[in-house]
Amino acid sequence: MTEHRGTGDTQVTAREVVRGTIRSFRGRVAAATVLLCGHQVGEALVPVLVGVVIDRAVATGDVGSLVVWLLVLAADFAMLSYSYRFGARQALHADLRADAGLRTRVAARLLDHRGGAETGRLPGSITSIAVADAKRVAVMNFWIPTAAAAAAALVVAAVALLRISLPLGLLILLGTPPLLWLIGRVGRPLERRSGAEQERAARAAGTAADLVSGIRVLKGLGAGPAAAEQYAASSRTALGATLRATRAEAGFLGTVQLANGLFLAVIALVGGLLALDGSITVGNLVSAVGLAQFLVGPLQTLGIAGARLAQARASAGRIAEILSAPPAVGPGRDGRGADPTTADPGADPTAGRAALAVTGLRHGPLDGLDLEVPAGQLLGVVAPDPSAATALARCLARDVAPDEGRILLDGTGVDDLAPAATRSMLLVAAHDAHLFTGTVLDNVTAATGDGAPGSATVAAMAAARADQAVEALPQGADTPVTSRGSSLSGGQRQRVALARALAADPPVLVLHDPTTAVDAVTESEIAARLREHRTGRTTVLLTTSPALLAVTDRVVVLRDGRVVADTTHTELMTDDTDYRRVVTG
């Protein structure tokens, strides 16, 4: 099978996810299979050797023979112990490494510059796929060797019983295939139900996680009780879905155990009857009963492996959906998206200056938008319809492909560049930009990779007034930040996010409402410092803030998806009543 990297260019099936996960570690899986087979064969030989000891030593009173066969039994125990120890280690290594590999593949697809994998999925649902589902698929690297060893034990037990008694051996050989067929039939509904319940549980968990991450905002709106009820409802849904999946698994395993018990009862009954009429010896009877009891383990193992395979297939289907998700935008002319400096000879992301142009852009509320931003200009874009600003930001960020029109950097269409090349030249800081787990400083230097407060980082934090924000924090810039920055206030989060964007220092920077959560005085300070910090760099402010618009070189106004005014903020405040109403609230 050709390995699929999961870039959305190739459709990946659930079967390919499972097979690829196993094939990637086939060496360890093969070694684990051999060793665990040795362990199970050794386990199967224990009752056989005990029967031999009874017949050849205990029944005859031969002490020498007793010592010899006890030594053979001890050697068997040593062999099976060694085999299990190292076989389980190989299987667990394959399991853990496959788990890490699958999570990496899912993360790589989600981080692909072309996007698309996260569309229609809650963050909590994506996390569930990357963690729980990846684990369910990867664990097949443990269960396949274990199931193979169980099958080997069945073969050895059948051969031993054939030597003890032909009827008992035939009973095993003829009875096992129907039993395994029954296990497979019972497992099919579990596979279907498991996939559906995992999906419901993931969605409910995602909703609950989103509510928790936004709890500060909800409290500020006085929506705490409603959010608590919604969270409780989501939790109940997740719990119900998990319980239904668990009941399905319990029913499956219970059915398997019942079938195994009945099968073993028949074996014990036949063996007892043969011992009564003298067809087998006492040692043979002990071996037969011991083998019958031993077979409970391998048969249960096969049943559990069947349940795990059913779950793995369902989880692999969800992973395959992520890996096969179509990209939101094209790969660019070079098709790689890997090297922004060689993606297009007409674009130089190290030049420090770049002109931005939008021609005939149609997407959502944008209706043939034309816009030019000369290199080094600070432009304000005012959209009374917030969805127009959002649509423009998403198109510029290449989160989506516009229905029509082009976006050009220094005359080169961004659709001719790899997404990575575009983003090295044009950075869009979204209104709802999230912070990451780590420290404040880690977040600010995320794009630069410096990891230390160099002069550029200090300047960016000062321009965004993040330096003022961290003064109130217990450990300053080294203060830990929880997921999505929920441990910080809204104003602190915005200033840190703005500092991160400024520290990246792209040739073209688009800021979407970067100061909506800060006070008026701080906003004025940020506006003045922002203009100074971005001198010589192209900057676009999608905002209705009068403080930010006051420091721009020019302002364009969007209505009905097009530019209806293009002049300075001062002239618009003087001559345009609608503009004045929008920016002054």
Automatic annotation (TrEMBL):
SUPFAM superfamilies: ABC transporter transmembrane region, P-loop containing nucleoside triphosphate hydrolases. It is found in: Cell membrane. It is a multi-pass membrane protein. It comes from the Bacteria. Residues 326-350 are annotated as: Disordered. Residues 30-311 form the ABC transmembrane type-1 domain. One of its GO terms (molecular function) is ATP binding. The chain crosses the membrane at residues 29-54, 66-84, 142-162, 168-184, 252-276. Keywords: ATP-binding, Membrane, Nucleotide-binding, Transmembrane, Transmembrane helix. InterPro entries: AAA+_ATPase, ABC1_TM_dom, ABC1_TM_sf, ABC_transporter-like_ATP-bd, ABC_transporter-like_CS, P-loop_NTPase, Type_1_exporter. Residues 351-585 form the ABC transporter domain. Coiled coil: none annotated. Its main location: membrane. This is ABC transporter ATP-binding protein. It comes from Pseudonocardia tropica. The lineage of its organism: Bacteria, Bacillati, Actinomycetota, Actinomycetes, Pseudonocardiales.
